[in-house]
Amino acid sequence: MPAAVFEFNSVIVREPSPSVVDGLRAEDRGSPTYEGVKAEHDAYVEAMRGADANVTVLPPLASFPDSIFVEDPALVFTEGAILLRPGAPTRVKEVEEIAPTLRDLFDVVLELPAGFADGGDVLTTAQGVMIGLSARTDRAGAEALQANIEKLGRKSEIVATPEGVLHFKTDCSLLDEETILATNRLARSGIFKAFRQMIIPEGEEPAANALRVNDVVMVGSDFPRTMEMLDKAGYKVVPLKTTEIGKIDAGLSCMSLRWFSDKM
Predict the structure, then answer these.
(1) 41 annotated active-site
(2) CA distance linking residue 169 with residue 264, whole number of Å
(3) How far is CA 203 from CA 11, 160, 170, in A?
(4) Based on the number of CB atoms within 10 Å of its own CB, is 218 exposed (0-12), middle (13-18) or buried (19 or more)?
(5) Cβ neighbourhood burial of 222 (10 Å; 0-12, 13-18, 19+)
(6) Is 254 a catalytic residue?
(7) List of the chain residues with pLDDT < 50
(8) Which member of 14, 91, 136, 167 is catalytic?
(9) How does pLDDT run across 203-238, given as a tens digit for each residue?
């Protein structure tokens, strides 16, 4: 029986470099400190291990401030990995850095031949893979990604990301096979009509980038009403600090590549 879409036994992360303080940001919310990002990342790795995932920790890359966010240059499934083409010019060469690790861990590694696509725009659900068009993922990249996903035997669809939202998963995450956590602005689009939806309380929109790993839901600890809502709904909530990474447009899903390996 195939694993549920939130069941993972394998995770890749990358240690932050001191250069992370120069990471990209759409708006100035102040600069993070390296020590703060490192502490949040360390807690994140421990939470992954606490959720029974085997974590591969890659070394920091000083030349690439955003390389801690390994979800954007690649996409991973049980069936194989796909090397993506990040939409930010400063991140394009991160693909070359992570490719050898993926080739070691996967029998099948595909490449994106055209366009641009970030992993932060990709949500895997039980119904298929949703690819959100955004400032970082264009139509050519999304269509090329669809073709690769099909080669891996999976279905996908291209959807719209609300105007002004950096990544599709900035505004949504998977809670279980039937339930999506979403901001009100994304829920209004109607793209999740096939799912049960839980709507983020007003003012806590960044909490939408939560992360279900096995039996726990990791949530930014700065968002108490979201955590209370999920707890009351019966989810096992693990709060994690995201204050520093939030200053460079990041959330919980950004910091890892996650899959269920049938080789373990």
Answers:
(1) no
(2) 28
(3) 31, 22, 14
(4) buried
(5) middle
(6) yes
(7) 1
(8) 167
(9) 999 999 999 999 999 999 999 999 999 999 999 999
